[in-house]
Amino acid sequence: MAWSQILERVKSSNTIWRLSVEDCIELYDNAPLHPLMAAAHYRRIQHNPTNEVTYLVDRNINYTNVCTINCQFCSFYRPPGHDETYTQSYDEIHGRIHELEDIGGSRILMQGGVNPSLEFDWYIKLIKELKDQHPSIDLDCFSPIEIEGIAEVTNLSTQEVLVRLKEAGMHGLPGGGAEMLVEDVRKDVSPKKGHPDNWLRVMKEAQLLGLTTSATNVIGFGETNADRVQHLRRIREQQDEVRKLNLPGFTSFIAWPVQLETNTFGKRNKGQN
Ligand code: SF4
Predict the structure, then answer these.
(1) What own/partner pairs with CB < 8 Å and gap ≥ 24 does 224-232 have?
(2) N or C: which terminus of the chain has fewer CB atoms within 10 Å of its end residue's CB?
(3) Which domain holds residue 83?
(4) Atom 2 (ligand 1): residue with closest C-alpha?
């Protein structure tokens, strides 16, 4: 079906149509921006008919830049032993949350590298302290690859790690590390992150515990539009499963283009994607 027919079908129907994978690829390949935006707005009104739009104020805290995963597109991490590594102290993290509280914020997204020198107790004590001292702040902490890293250090399963962190006061997981949930792309740019199923599995474990999660998507690795749609399909399928259980699942979706400055991926591609 041509893009115009797909958009017409969306806008002329009172029922909520779900786009097929083929529909999505056609829209990605051929639909002009403005008709696409108009159809998206129509769809938004179908879901949320009022004009009320909400937002929250949150803060990203990158507690450590030590990482052993070496993603090619990452300009943030430093390998263990590098003289530019850092790990923030509890006091520094508290200080950042105090600044957030001062402006009425309600959530932190705390993510860092996979730092093998941090013991599980460091994470548990941190979450307990933060919960105790900042009770109004939702603690969305540690992306799936960090949870996998903690599991490796502790010899626990990722699910057990999540249970313990939740008991300590963690509210949810940020969505870092999804990038492109397509095996070939992932193997090329972050092979140590493993198969896309890893990210989805850890997220599912968190979701089944009732933790809030976010989904993300990084574009610009040389992937096809079909790859991008494959990523969306996998997120949507998981969301369908989890929402059937009345759990929060993914509560946000954030996409952005890969940054090419000062990382291996950018140099490899001579600053182009
Ligand atoms: S896991 Fe995260 S911090 Fe580590 S290299 Fe990859 S993107 Fe960077």
Answers:
(1) 225/25, 225/28, 225/29, 226/25, 227/180, 227/182, 227/185, 228/28, 228/180, 229/21, 229/24, 229/25, 229/28, 230/21, 230/181, 230/182, 231/178, 231/180, 231/181, 231/182, 232/24
(2) N
(3) 55-268
(4) 113
Q: Are residues 93 and 164 in the same domain?
A: yes
Pocket of ligand 1 (CB under 6 A): 67, 69-71, 74, 76-77, 113-114, 145, 190
Provide the ipTM: 0.99
Q: Report the chain's mean pLDDT, rounded to a whole number.
A: 95
Pick from 69, 110, 118 the residue to mutate for probing ligand 1's pocket: most ligand atoms within 8 Å of its CB: 69
* Tens digits of residue pLDDT in 6-28: 999 988 877 777 899 999 999 99
The CA 65 to ligand 1 mean position distance, Å, reads: 8
Probe residue for ligand 1, chosen from 78, 145, 180, 199 as the CB with the greatest number of ligand atoms within 8 Å: 145
Same domain for 67 and 14 = no
Q: What is the mean pLDDT of residues 226-232?
A: 98
Indicate whether 273 belongs to any domain. no
Token pair belonging to 201? 């599995």
Are residues 121 and 91 in contact, defined by beta-carbon separation less than 8 angstroms?
Answer: no
